[in-house]
């Protein structure tokens, strides 16, 4: 099935083609026609399933003939839990709308940065992507009005609730018109999400894309290397240079290790940036942009800071430090092998890590090919 068979307008289909999307993902095949028909929808799907485009494309399609005519009265509202996800979702909308003849304005707003520039940019906004706290600040400042919102999207609703945004979400819902389309996306359907969807959604279509957490995506090849602790840094640099890796996401266990690793890589002629909670929002945004644009080859990140990172065709993920749990392992390697592109996940295992790595393999029901590295000459790395 192609995007042109989902009911999207020719302009949107061209926009998809310009982004080189090969074909719709399972969640897109089901969700796009239903959203175009105005149905409420409950989507249970993991990050990397294509869920953002599943709602972005039909929203942009409908917005072509239904733009916001009152200034600061947005037509579509997308609520997300984190600043990183707000930027990512906003980028998806912008990447598609850039190829649409009719100008549709999308803006992402979030806390941690000055509110004044966001207030100014809200003029003429059709689609607003927002974190709950910053949205309420903007509403209180009368910088945006929600009384004419026609479509509400709650993205990663489970994470939003787990981060304690339930009260903010209820305040926002009270500001919206009763007649509207509601789209709720979540990785899981736990009790909190179920309670929200029961009150929010009206006769929703359920789209559930099951991905066994124990299996991981099928387009990912996995490999582990046994490395002496003191040789981890040199071996990482050897691996990146020997394999000519042009874009690789490297996971570490702590913020200090991220900065240290970036310095070591830079000293050896490998351009790298760090992404962690110790950096300002501006620095994190710049780091991710440099990586996505190919200005740097390596992004070194902690698990927490990596939440919401979505690089469509990321070829390599390296676990420099082992994750704490099997669940974190699956989330890490799931950053590659997306959009039906092959990816490779590599794990560096020290003697101290060996037992923990065996536990991860057992819990995830996998046997990962492991190679010795003692014979590799690491001089100069």
Automatic annotation (TrEMBL):
Domain called DEAD-box RNA helicase Q: residue spans: 1-29
GO molecular function terms noted in the UniProt entry: ATP binding; hydrolase activity; nucleic acid binding; RNA helicase activity
SMART domains given in the database record: DEXDc, HELICc
Motif Q motif, residue range(s) on this chain: 1-29
InterPro entries: DEAD/DEAH_box_helicase_dom, DEAD/DEAH_RhlB, DEAD_box_RNA_helicase, Helicase_ATP-bd, Helicase_C-like, P-loop_NTPase, RNA-helicase_DEAD-box_CS, RNA_helicase_DEAD_Q_motif
Helicase C-terminal domain boundaries: 234-379
Coiled coil stretches, renumbered: none
Hydrolase as UniProt keyword: yes
CDD domains associated with the record: DEADc, SF2_C_DEAD
Helicase ATP-binding domain residues: 32-207
Keywords for this protein: ATP-binding, Helicase, Hydrolase, Nucleotide-binding
Pfam family, one: Helicase_C
Any Gene Ontology CC annotation: cytosol
Gene3D superfamilies assigned: P-loop containing nucleotide triphosphate hydrolases (3.40.50.300)
Family: Belongs to the DEAD box helicase family.
Name recorded for this polypeptide: DEAD/DEAH box helicase
Source organism: Rufibacter hautae
